[in-house]
């Protein structure tokens, strides 16, 4: 294409170059002009302001440990299972809770947001909620009998899921303050189980942290 001189401005990196109008090629936001004096790069000028910079940087963390526990197998460990499960049996049938630990490192700015991403393998009208929990458990040692009690404050709600083989994103409030260990528990209030892939699977949970 051939552009009139009013449609471009010279790139500062090529200040002082000689411009000769000719055929232009667009590459990476520049218009490249070939002439007898060489090839010169010019930025397109549309009259619109440049787009704003990204609002924040994101870092994604995979659990360093995760496991589910089962009320009716109170001393059995499921730390190597490929799934995490939540279910509320109401004290008469199986209740499942899941625990996740993340090691958050490398943050250099203030945390402006966080979300938990889970890969759904079994959907539920109540896929649960996310709460904080104490540490001290190990992936290959935690059981229903020795697991820390889930916190009472909901950090994020998973809600209903209907699609399997897909991610669900759960915004978290107050879960991540900065670098350090983040301990989370998943639980629900339904006899309809929700199941997600664990860190031993092809789609491990993700904690996505945004900094400003």
List keywords for this structure.
mainly beta; 5-stranded antiparallel sheet; single chain; 212 residues; 6-stranded antiparallel sheet
Shape: globular
| Helical coverage, percent range | under 10%
* CATH class value of the largest domain: Mainly Beta
Number of strands: 15
CATH fold type of the largest domain: Jelly Rolls
- Secondary structure class reads mainly beta
Radius of gyration over all CA atoms, rounded: 26 Å
Strand content: 35-45%
Order of helices and strands: EEEEEEEEEEEEEEE
CATH architectural designation of the largest domain: Sandwich
Number of domains: 2
* Tally of separate helices: 0
**Major sheet description:** 6 strands, antiparallel
What does the model show?
With 212 residues, the protein is mostly beta strands. It folds into 2 domains: 5-44, no CATH class; 57-211, Jelly Rolls. Helix content is 0%, strand content 44%. The protein has strands at 8-10, 24-27, 30-35, 38-44, 57-61, 65-70, 83-86, 96-104, 111-122, 129-133, 150-157, 166-172, 180-187, 194-197, 206-211. Strands 5, 7, 9, 12, 14 and 15 form a 6-stranded antiparallel beta sheet that branches. The chain is globular.
């Amino acid at each position: 294409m051939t552009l009139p001189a009013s449609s471009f401005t010279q790139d500062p990196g090529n200040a002082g170059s000689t411009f000769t109008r000719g055929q232009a090629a667009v590459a990476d936001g520049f218009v490249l002009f070939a002439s007898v004096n060489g090839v010169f790069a010019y930025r397109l000028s549309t009259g619109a302001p440049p787009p704003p910079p990204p609002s924040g940087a994101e870092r994604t963390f995979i659990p360093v440990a995760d496991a589910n526990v089962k009320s009716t197998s109170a001393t059995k460990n499921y730390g190597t299972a490929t799934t995490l499960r939540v279910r509320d049996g109401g004290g008469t049938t199986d209740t499942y809770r899941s625990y996740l630990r993340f090691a958050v490192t490398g943050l250099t700015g203030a945390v402006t947001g966080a979300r938990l991403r889970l890969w759904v393998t079994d959907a539920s009208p109540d896929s649960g909620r996310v709460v904080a929990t104490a540490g001290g458990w190990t992936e290959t040692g935690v059981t229903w009998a020795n697991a820390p009690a889930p916190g009472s404050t909901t950090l994020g709600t998973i809600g209903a899921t209907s699609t399997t083989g897909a991610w669900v994103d759960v915004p978290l409030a107050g879960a991540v303050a900065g670098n350090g260990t983040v301990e989370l528990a998943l639980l629900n209030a339904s006899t309809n189980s929700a199941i997600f892939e664990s860190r031993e699977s092809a789609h491990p949970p993700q904690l996505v942290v945004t900094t400003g």
